[in-house]
């Protein structure tokens, strides 16, 4: 099986084409699942240091040890930037981690998860229960279908849309193109906000820059943030945030996660200072994204 061939001498090695010249390895304790869905290769293994690991098409998606650094940031950067998020759509994110984080906001009344690959949900329920247990909440509705189609059927409907996608290869490629962002814009209510996985400033500035330029033609408010996470390429991943209102300032969110509050006690990475700092980019990335030339 192709996925098992990536495990050599007890180590899983990630060598995707999107970051040539470097590789990420994790020591494997036990292979828990290896199969092929309708859309992609799916592997789950118990690692020696990072707990259970979900891999899609050879790329690490989540590990139990560090997933919160990604899940909390892709969720709460958007959720706290909205004054009253009630109806939420999560596209992708079949592991359930983003849904888990969304549900921590008391204002939330409905959460829709739109995942094209049901196998991801099934293996998450079995092997990643700390994330997939969120599916038991009665506010959650699961839709096994294309996210763009679902949004076309639900115009002017959501307060926040979070796209927790894999990299722009295979079924996730369309989630990084302008037509998809146009569909998100149409599916948002007035004042709505989107947050999408935005790749890595160390590796993908040539992808990030034109994507943000396209977003600025669609949304009046656009920004870029990032978080650190050990098992993603170069230990970092970014987020594209867009708002339907020009008054939205992502680095100064509408709501503050107060120290000692009920929601802050549930969080392991995100806080208000981290929120503000996430938008302060290293100078090389800021210049590149702004279209400035290096001296």
What do you see in this structure?
It comes from Porphyridium purpureum (Red alga). The active site is at residue 164. Residues 9-244 form the PABS domain. Pfam families: Spermine_synt_N, Spermine_synth. InterPro entries: PABS, PABS_CS, SAM-dependent_MTases_sf, Spermi_synthase, Spermi_synthase_euk, Spermidine_synt_N, Spermidine_synt_N_sf. This protein is an alpha/beta fold. It has two domains: 4-63, Spermidine Synthase, Chain: A, domain 2 (Roll), CATH 2.30.140.10; 67-290, Rossmann fold, CATH 3.40.50.150. The protein is built from nine helices and 13 strands. The strands form two sheets. The protein has a seven-stranded mixed beta sheet with strand order 9-8-7-10-11-13-12. A six-stranded antiparallel beta sheet has the order 1-2-3-4-5-6, with helices on one face. Helix 2 (97-102) links the parallel strand 7 and strand 8 (110-114). The chain starts with 6 loop residues before the first strand and ends in a 5-residue tail after the last helix. The mean pLDDT is 93.
List the helices and strands and how they pair.
Elements: E1 7-8, E2 11-14, E3 24-36, E4 41-47, E5 52-56, E6 59-63, H1 67-79, E7 87-92, H2 97-102, E8 110-114, H3 118-127, H4 129-132, E9 140-143, H5 147-152, E10 158-164, H6 178-187, E11 188-197, H7 205-216, E12 221-228, E13 236-243, H8 272-277, H9 283-290
Parallel strand pairs: 7-8, 7-10, 8-9, 10-11
Antiparallel strand pairs: 1-2, 2-3, 3-4, 4-5, 5-6, 11-13, 12-13
Helix pairs in contact: 7-9
GO molecular function, one term: spermidine synthase activity
Active site: 164 (proton acceptor)
Keywords: Polyamine biosynthesis, Transferase
């Amino acid at each position: 099986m192709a996925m098992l061939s990536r495990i050599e001498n007890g180590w899983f090695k990630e060598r995707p084409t999107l970051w040539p010249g470097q590789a990420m390895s994790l020591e494997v304790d036990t292979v828990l699942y290896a199969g092929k869905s309708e859309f992609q290769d799916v592997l789950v293994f118990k690692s020696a240091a990072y707990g259970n690991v979900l891999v899609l098409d050879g790329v690490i998606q989540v590990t139990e040890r560090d997933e919160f650094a990604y899940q909390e940031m892709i969720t709460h950067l958007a959720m706290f930037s909205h004054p009253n998020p009630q109806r939420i759509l999560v596209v992708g994110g079949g592991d359930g981690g983003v849904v888990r984080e969304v549900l921590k906001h008391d204002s939330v009344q409905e959460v829709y998860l739109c995942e094209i690959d049901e196998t991801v949900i099934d293996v998450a329920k079995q092997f990643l229960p700390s994330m997939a247990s969120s599916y038991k909440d009665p506010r959650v509705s699961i839709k096994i279908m294309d996210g763009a189609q679902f949004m076309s059927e639900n115009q002017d409907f959501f307060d926040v849309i979070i796209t927790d996608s894999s990299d722009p290869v295979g079924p996730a490629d369309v989630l990084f193109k302008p037509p998809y962002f146009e569909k998100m814009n149409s599916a948002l209510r007035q004042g709505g906000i989107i947050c999408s996985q935005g790749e890595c400033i160390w590796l993908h500035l040539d992808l990030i820059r034109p994507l943000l330029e396209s977003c600025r033609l669609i949304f009046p408010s656009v920004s870029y943030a990032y978080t650190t996470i050990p098992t993603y390429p170069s230990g970092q991943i970014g987020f594209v945030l867009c708002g339907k209102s020009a008054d939205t300032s992502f680095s100064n969110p509408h709501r503050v996660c107060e120290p000692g509050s009920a929601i802050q006690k549930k969080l392991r990475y995100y806080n208000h200072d981290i929120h503000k700092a996430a938008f302060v980019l290293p100078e090389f990335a800021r210049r590149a994204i702004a279209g400035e030339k290096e001296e």
